[in-house]
């Protein structure tokens, strides 16, 4: 069965307007699309194309490493859900045989040399990285994109607050310690006979 899905795009130029009516209108549009569609694309988001390209290139390099190099960073060896997940290492839908992708999870970390400035907790704590000698520039490229995406999220929060009829600064004191987890994912091409119980990722909610 084919479904006609309304995927809407929201332009963030109005978010920085000094006219509160323009910000209010954009917030109302976001509220509408969140309620009636569930998600939306953003344009004019401010993330430089080179930052995105750098992260994609770094991800491709990582997933091209030998398996034994990647499994040294196995996510099951860490207490805080950071690191590498092997092909079929997750099974989102118990009716399936496993998720046909590899992954690499990371959380907030300073771009500086000090890699210990994190709080303890299930979704925080130290990231794990391949040696710089194996993948020069990998950590920096990935973290630059992570920080750009977190900044975009912070930029959206005043609009979310307005959409909920709250003061624009309502979330300011609630997002001082980012708990966002970012995932690099690789979905291998499927050729030949395809098992319908082995798909990229099983049905799930976020």
**Average pLDDT over all residues:** 84
Strand order of the largest sheet: 3-5-6
**SSE string, helices as H and strands as E:** EHEHHEEEHEE
Largest sheet: 3 strands, antiparallel
Give the number of helices.
4
Distance, first to last CA: 24 Å
* Shape estimate: globular
CATH architectural group of the largest domain: Sandwich
CATH T-level topology of the largest domain: Jelly Rolls
Radius of gyration: 19 Å
The assembly state of the depicted protein chains is: single chain
Q: Kindly give the count of domains.
A: 2
Describe this structure in words.
The protein is α/β, with parallel strands linked by helices. It has 2 domains: 1-44, no CATH class; 48-199, B-lactam Antibiotic, Isopenicillin N Synthase, Chain (Jelly Rolls, Sandwich), CATH 2.60.120. It contains 4 helices and 7 strands; from the N terminus they run E-H-E-H-H-E-E-E-H-E-E. The protein has helices at 20-36, 49-63, 67-71, 138-163; strands at 8-11, 40-43, 83-85, 98-99, 102-106, 182-186, 198-199. The strands form 3 sheets. Strands 3-5-6 form a 3-stranded antiparallel sheet, with helices on one face. The protein is globular and about 55 Å long. The two termini are 24 Å apart. Residues 1-5 have low confidence and may be disordered. Residues 16-132 form the Non-haem dioxygenase N-terminal domain. Keywords: Iron, Metal-binding, Oxidoreductase. It holds the Pfam family DIOX_N.
């Amino acid at each position: 069965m084919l479904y006609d899905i309304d995927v809407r795009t929201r332009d963030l130029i109005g978010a920085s307007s000094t006219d509160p009516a323009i910000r209010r209108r954009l917030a109302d549009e976001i509220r509408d699309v969140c309620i009636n569609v569930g998600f939306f694309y953003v344009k004019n988001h401010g993330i430089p194309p080179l930052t995105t390209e750098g992260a994609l290139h770094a991800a491709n390099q990582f997933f091209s490493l030998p398996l034994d190099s990647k499994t040294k960073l196995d996510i099951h060896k860490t207490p805080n859900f950071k690191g590498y997940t092997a092909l079929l290492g997750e099974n989102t839908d118990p009716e399936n045989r496993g998720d046909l992708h590899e992954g690499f999870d990371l959380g907030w970390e300073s771009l500086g040399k000090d890699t210990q400035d994190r709080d303890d907790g299930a979704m925080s704590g130290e990231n794990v990285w391949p040696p710089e000698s194996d993948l020069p520039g990998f950590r920096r490229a990935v973290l630059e994109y992570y920080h750009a995406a977190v900044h975009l999220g912070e930029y959206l929060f005043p609009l979310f607050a307005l959409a909920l009829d709250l003061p624009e600064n309502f979330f300011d004191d609630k997002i001082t310690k980012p708990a966002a987890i970012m995932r690099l994912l690789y979905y291998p091409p499927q050729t030949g006979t395809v098992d319908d119980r082995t798909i990229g990722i099983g049905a799930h909610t976020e």
